[in-house]
Amino acid sequence: MRAARPVTRPGRPVTRPGSLWRNRDFTLLWGGQALSGLGGSMAALAFPLIILSIRGSAVLAGVVGTVALATSALVGIPAGVLVDRVDRRMLMLSCDAIRLIAFAVLVSLLLTGHGSFVAVLVVAVVEALCDTPYSNASMASVRALVPADDVRTAVARNEARQYGVALAGPPLGGLLFGITRSLPFLVNAVSYVASAVALLLIRTPLQEERTPSSQSPLRDLGVGLRHVATTPALRATVMVAAPLNFALNGVIFGIVVVLRDRGVAAGLIGTVETIIGICGLLGAILAPVLMARVSALTLLRVICLLGVPLLLLVRPLAATPLAALPVGLLVLMGPALNSILFGHLAKTVPDALQGRVLSALMVATMSMTALAPIVIGTLVHHFGATGMVVGVASAMAVSVVVVLLSVGIREFGTLEEPSAV
After folding, report:
1. Domain enclosing residue 38, as ranges
2. Hey, which residues does 13 pair with through a beta bridge?
3. Closest listed residue to residue 93, CA positions, set 202, 204, 212
4. Minimal CB count within 10 Å: which of 63, 114, 298, 322?
């Protein structure tokens, strides 16, 4: 085990522990997010189930998902400006408090028999409004809590946390929904209390000292957009990731809707994201090995080229949760790719610019995803599982074309830092 040694940061010294698990503040941030993420994962499954229960419409279930994702996209870039201007801890605490109140109200409405499509839609929007700046602030805070040499490892562990949550949350959410429809939302509300307590216990400031910006918020926003637009590797990432994310999010939503339409129990439906979570968790565990042996460009090409045939395999499995297996194989390679990309950004982008660059990149890469639930819900409604699979495979084909023909995609290799791995 390595002995602790000092690491210099602008404005303050940081002591480097021998392991990230001995880094108290990073562990608190990681643990608080794990608990709130678990509750959020339960609620994410419960949202379409509650709409299908109340209104029996896959299209309306898709509307809730699309509006929530569109809200995240709309507030994404302004949220980045906010993250770079205000105290990140207070911003995250405020987001937890607002979400706690929103889900408490929804639970009360469901328990009293007043739950409605509008109420669920409003809470989903509030969740999206708060989750975007919270997640952005959390990602930007890694730089403040973790020494530079450990940034990629920290990003990989965050990936493992997210997929671990995806592994445990949906089946728990399905089981709790089967007990009573309000229970997943109640557990989610409690999880925000746990997240807030963890944030209050963190001693290290979540951002470096900075002077208030003299520019307008719009000019600040432009700086982040310009950084993504003028970096060839990041431009290439956007061109490939936007349709790819549409396909992956769309197929997961479509599988859930198809299984629900065929009368599969809620607990079994939850295993869809459990299968994907297992694959993602394995991918996060294997990420250090993949980062050391396979280039980011190779990983990106393999994901895209295997994408279309794997998504087409979903069709013969669509009547069972095993439809998630081909999707899981694609997800397996994602954590290593994400660790390279976001680790690179955390190490190279100045702290005062982290929020804007991260938000600009996330909004751009997720730009098409907001359309996935309503588009895929409509395809399932009119054409069943076949329409859903054709839709997501077509989107993945766009990523394949970009990977094969785009000159800018070759610049993706500039993200490599072999010595750091």
Report:
1. 19-207+218-415
2. 8
3. 202
4. 114
User: Residue 165 region, left (φ>0) first, then alpha (ψ -120 to 50), else beta?
Assistant: alpha
- CA-CA distance, 283 to 290, in Å (whole number)? 9
Cα(386)–Cα(364) distance, integer angstroms: 29
Residue found under tokens 């085990």: 1
Examine residue 421 and state whether it is found in any structural domain, yes or no.
Answer: no
**Residue 23 in 3-state DSSP?**
coil
What 347-350 contacts at long range (C-beta under 8 Å, 24+ apart), as own/partner pairs, is 347/143, 347/148, 347/151, 347/417, 347/420, 349/227
Question: Does 420 fall in a domain?
Answer: no
Q: What is the CATH number of the domain that holds 172?
A: 1.20.1250.20
Task: Give 7's strand partners.
Answer: 14
H-assigned helices in 313-353: 324-331, 334-348
Angle between helices 58-85 and 117-145 (to 10 degrees): 30
Residue 353 lies in a domain: yes
One digit per residue, pLDDT tens: the chain, 421 residues?
A: 333 333 334 444 344 444 677 888 999 999 999 998 898 888 888 888 888 888 777 788 878 888 887 888 788 888 888 888 888 999 999 999 999 999 999 999 999 888 888 999 999 999 999 998 998 898 888 888 888 778 878 888 888 888 788 778 877 888 898 888 889 999 999 999 999 999 999 998 888 776 666 667 777 777 778 878 787 777 777 888 889 999 998 998 889 888 888 888 877 787 787 788 788 888 888 888 887 787 777 888 888 888 899 999 999 988 888 888 999 988 888 888 888 777 777 777 778 888 888 888 887 887 788 788 888 888 888 888 889 999 999 999 998 888 888 776 766 655 554 333 3
Tokens representing 155? 């990003």
Asked if residues 396 and 311 have their Cβ atoms less than 8 Å apart, the reply is yes
Helices (H), 180-216: 183-201
Q: Are 239 and 401 in contact (CB under 8 A)?
A: no
Nearest to 274 by CA among 153, 400, 175: 175
Buried-state track 123-147, b at ≥16 Cβ within 10 A, e below 16: bbbbbbbbbbbbbbbbbbbbbbbbb
DSSP type of residue 370: G
Residue indicated by tokens 């993200």: 415
Instruction: Kindly state whether residue 296 falls inside one of the protein's structural domains.
Output: yes
H-run or E-run covering 6 = strand 5-9
Based on the structure, what is the number of domains in the chain? 1
